[in-house]
Amino acid sequence: MSSKKTATLDYITTKVKPVFDQLIARIVIEKPDDVYTWSINWLQKQQRGQLQLQVVNNDLSEEEEEEEELVLEIKQTQKQQTRSAVSAEVYGEYNKKEDFKPRFIQKSQGQIDRIKKRILNSFMFQALDEKDLNIVLGAMEEKKFQDGDFVIKQGEDGNELYVIDEGRLECYKRFAGLQEEKLLKTYIPGESFGELALLYNAPRAATIKAIENVTTFALDRETFNNIVKFSAIKKREQMEEILGKIELLQSMDNYERVQLCDVLREEKHQAGKSIITEGEIGDRIYLIIEGELEAYSNKLNEKVYDYKSGDYFGELALLKNSPRQATVIAKTDVTLLYCDFNSFKRLMGPLEQVLQRNMERYQHYLQQ
């Protein structure tokens, strides 16, 4: 292949394909009648969003700038650049999915079962059908790291995402103007990392270091791009849109919202179903996506609160480290997102102050 053709393919890979992958994913979701007009409007909206993000970022405090920088770095890799037209023939050659042959790594049934259990905890893989799920299971490779090993380093190219089977890792980020790296979070078994570099064709945005012996399952870029990427983009955008409507999460920055997507799980209940029961030990906080619920105090024998879409409940057990203070029953059919307390506190620790302020709505009943 000529150097000119190679350069064109590189340009498509790094500049064109990330934009068109997201555009196509949104078209499939929205299914507009006028694809041309809708696509133009979508691209213009993305451009305005980039400009607004830059303006807002200029007004942020130093601490907020640190938190936003990770997302900015990722999104800046998607900016359109003015270049001469590329060959449709070359793009077609690059984008032939029928040429994709997924890798297959032999595994024991025990390994397959462990991988399946772990990846189905990640939102990225939950939308896969059985055929695609089996392709991903076949392509996953078990990788082990020792305490102190660097799994990925900030600024490097990323070719794999990782799902943690055993052990813990820490995520560090070096921000402009700071000499020391900032600890962002600790990863535990069941969580995944490294997908941002694959989703956005960007360099690694942070450093991940093992703090004990770790076993992971790694998925290569090619399998991710051909099997997982569209469903992951679709699922992430749906989740971010949902989270944007939850009052509790309004103070979150984009990076925190992305991280929260990875630990939230969805469940549906029919009207009349008890979600939590007064007196039991609770380990989940719930976000209401659709439907209405009611909270009852058995001790007081009365209704103490009405919930609607956008509300949350279950936080009292988290804040007070006490049994459930009321029974919450679905008034209508409901769709909920839930997060276990350990994950919530690791990701959302500072937001416990927000929850504390909202305890006022229960104070009358708690005093009684």
Q: How would you describe the shape?
A: globular
Say which CATH homologous superfamily of the largest domain is assigned. Jelly Rolls
Mean pLDDT metric:
75
Report low-confidence residues grouped into runs of 5 or more: 55-67, 77-96
Alpha-carbon distance between the two ends: 79 Å
- The run of helices and strands is HHHHHHEEEEEEHEEHHEEEEEEHEEHHH
Specify the helix fraction band: 40-55%
Oligomer: single chain
Q: Which second-level CATH architecture of the largest domain applies?
A: Sandwich
Number of domain units: 3
Strands in their spatial order, largest beta sheet: 1-8-3-6
Provide the gyration radius in Å.
23 Å
Overall strand count: 16
CATH class of the largest domain: Mainly Beta
The secondary-structure class comes to alpha+beta
What is the count of helical runs?
13
Biggest β-sheet description: 4 strands, antiparallel
Percent strand: 15-25%
CATH topology of the largest domain: Jelly Rolls
Give the SSE map:
Layout: H1 3-30, H2 35-58, H3 62-76, H4 88-94, H5 109-119, H6 130-139, E1 141-145, E2 150-152, E3 160-166, E4 169-173, E5 182-187, E6 192-193, H7 195-200, E7 207-210, E8 214-220, H8 221-243, H9 254-261, E9 265-269, E10 274-276, E11 284-290, E12 293-297, E13 302-307, E14 312-313, H10 315-320, E15 327-330, E16 334-340, H11 341-348, H12 352-358, H13 360-367
Antiparallel strand pairs: 1-8, 2-7, 3-6, 3-8, 4-5, 4-7, 9-16, 10-15, 11-14, 11-16, 12-13, 12-15
Helix pairs in contact: 1-8, 2-3, 6-8
